[in-house]
Amino acid sequence: MRHFEEFELEHLFNKTGSFLLRWRCRRHLKNCEICRRRMAGVMADRQFAERLKSGVERMRQSREVIMGRKEA
Fold it and tell me: How far is CA 26 from CA 8, 15, 22, 40, 68, in A?
């Protein structure tokens, strides 16, 4: 059984891979604990990146308010 790499799982998550790749990946995930753990890691990384991005945006906005460039 061939396991999927993280970039292939990201294609499934982002819906950017070909139909065949996404179908094979979904089918494989139903039976493979190793790839399900990899997919959970990919999803956790994505969620962390989103939280980091929103935190940076909030910091930027608060900096603008403090520096008087933007009115609150």
Answer: 11, 12, 6, 13, 51
Phi-psi map region of 15: left, alpha, beta (phi>0 left; psi -120 to 50 alpha): left
Tens-digit pLDDT profile for the chain (72 aa)?
688 888 888 888 788 888 888 888 889 999 999 999 999 998 999 999 999 999 999 998 888 887 776 554
Chain centroid to Cα 39, Å, comes to 10
Distance CA 9, CA 4 (A): 7
What count of other Cβ atoms lies within 10 Å of the Cβ of residue 50?
10
Contacts of 22 (CB under 8 A, 6+ apart): 11, 12, 15
pTM across the whole model: 0.67
